[in-house]
């Protein structure tokens, strides 16, 4: 009898369970301290109790742990130095949603050669998250595959639902159960409405299919996650970081009964994918915050040790050190200049609000 299933399935490979991977790679006390403290700080920024600016900064994607750790060491030092005015969280992105096809990130294909050793990818992602948080540098990542959080989410302080998945019920359900604050990107067409709807959905309880710590398929019942904000990342119609766009998005959030908390992603369609264009976007949004728009709670930058990007060829060993293999990034020096500018501007803002009270 001809089979009616698995017509397009090449095969399946068993995977380590979340609990076993966590036992093999447990979070240290230093990591747990960093994660709990930083999640609480993000929560206070969302509630308005903490007026510092949240900056989510780092590579578009991680493909080489050595350069990621070198970047993390530099950022951890700067984050500590500027912590009076900025909460800096490192982008440690392991999952890349593609417009069509392409390398889908370190978890999916850690060897970057089409061997898809996902177990090793999960192991390497966990290891890097532990190393980064042990430096007291909190981590931010996009939650793309709904199974992945069981393996990594305990080590993450801030999560994003991307422009391509914010409208997806699967991702909204997943976000409703995540333990950290979540930012929702506007759609790739530039429309923030779906992100606002995502926030309304994911703050509600959901019941859906997933896996438990043992890797057993199960029904997951969530409480809903109200720690949410909108991320403006521009869209097909152009950037959406201007004061008019931010005001309109804030009003739409208020109309939907949400606290208007907005992070502006200076990259993606807000930079027209030209990494240098993140600089004027960042400065414009900073100016809006300094001018008194407290709906702007943060900004995102795509940044790496070296500027630009490079193509992933058949020979990953030929890649240039510290250069993105996905979207183009600012280099470290450009990043440091912007972070110091933000700290100086925010010290004025925070000084004024302290003297007014
Ligand atoms: O942030 C990264 C990219 O913008 C996103 O993954 C889409 O990439 P692509 O259009 O190159 O596939
Ligand atoms: C993929 C990303 O962004 P977006 O969903 O906005 O395209 C990202 O931030 O890496």
From TrEMBL:
Recorded superkingdom: Bacteria
EC number: 2.5.1.54
Catalytic activity: D-erythrose 4-phosphate + phosphoenolpyruvate + H2O = 7-phospho-2-dehydro-3-deoxy-D-arabino-heptonate + phosphate
Biological-process GO terms, alphabetical: amino acid biosynthetic process; aromatic amino acid family biosynthetic process; chorismate biosynthetic process
Domain DAHP synthetase I/KDSA: 40-338
GO cellular component term of the entry, any: cytoplasm
Pathway(s) annotated for this protein in UniProt: Metabolic intermediate biosynthesis; chorismate biosynthesis; chorismate from D-erythrose 4-phosphate and phosphoenolpyruvate: step 1/7
UniProt entry keywords in alphabetical sequence: Amino-acid biosynthesis, Aromatic amino acid biosynthesis, Transferase
Enzyme class, broadest EC rank: transferase
The keyword Amino-acid biosynthesis appears for this protein: yes
Any GO MF annotation of the entry: 3-deoxy-7-phosphoheptulonate synthase activity
InterPro entries recorded: Aldolase_TIM, DAHP1/KDSA, DAHP_synth_1
Family statement: Belongs to the class-I DAHP synthase family.
Function description: Stereospecific condensation of phosphoenolpyruvate (PEP) and D-erythrose-4-phosphate (E4P) giving rise to 3-deoxy-D-arabino-heptulosonate-7-phosphate (DAHP).
Name this polypeptide is given: Phospho-2-dehydro-3-deoxyheptonate aldolase
């Amino acid at each position: 009898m001809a089979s009616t299933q698995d017509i397009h399935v090449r095969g399946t490979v068993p995977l380590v369970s979340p609990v076993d991977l966590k036992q093999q790679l447990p979070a240290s006390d230093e990591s747990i301290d960093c994660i709990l403290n930083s999640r609480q700080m993000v929560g206070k920024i969302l509630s308005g109790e903490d007026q510092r600016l949240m900056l989510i900064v780092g590579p578009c994607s991680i493909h080489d742990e050595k350069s990621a750790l070198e970047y993390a060491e530099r950022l951890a030092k700067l984050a500590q130095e500027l912590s009076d005015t900025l909460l800096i969280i490192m982008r440690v992105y392991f999952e890349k949603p593609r417009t069509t096809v392409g390398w889908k990130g370190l978890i999916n294909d850690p060897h970057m050669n089409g061997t898809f050793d996902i177990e090793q990818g999960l192991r390497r992602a966990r290891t890097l998250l532990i190393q980064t948080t042990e430096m007291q540098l909190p981590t931010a990542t996009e939650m793309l595959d709904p199974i992945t959080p069981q393996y990594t989410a305990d080590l993450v302080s801030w999560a994003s639902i991307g422009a391509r998945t914010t409208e997806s019920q699967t991702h909204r359900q997943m976000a409703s159960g995540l333990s950290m604050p979540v930012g929702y990107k506007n759609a790739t067409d530039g429309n923030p409405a779906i992100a606002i709807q995502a926030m309304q959905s994911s703050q509600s309880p959901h019941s859906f299919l997933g896996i438990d710590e043992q890797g057993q398929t199960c029904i997951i019942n969530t409480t809903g996650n109200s720690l949410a904000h909108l991320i403006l990342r521009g869209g097909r119609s152009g950037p959406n970081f201007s004061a008019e766009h931010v005001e309109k998005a804030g009003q739409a959030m208020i109309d939907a009964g949400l606290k208007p908390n907005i992070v502006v992603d200076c990259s993606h369609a807000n930079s027209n994918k030209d990494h240098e264009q993140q600089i004027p976007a960042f400065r414009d949004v900073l100016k809006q915050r300094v001018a008194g728009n407290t709906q702007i709670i943060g900004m995102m930058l795509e940044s790496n040790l070296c500027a630009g990007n490079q193509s992933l060829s058949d020979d990953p060993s030929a890649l240039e050190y510290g250069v993105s293999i996905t979207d183009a990034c600012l280099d470290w020096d450009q990043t440091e200049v912007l972070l110091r500018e933000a700290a100086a501007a925010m010290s004025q803002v925070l000084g004024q609000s302290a003297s007014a009270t």
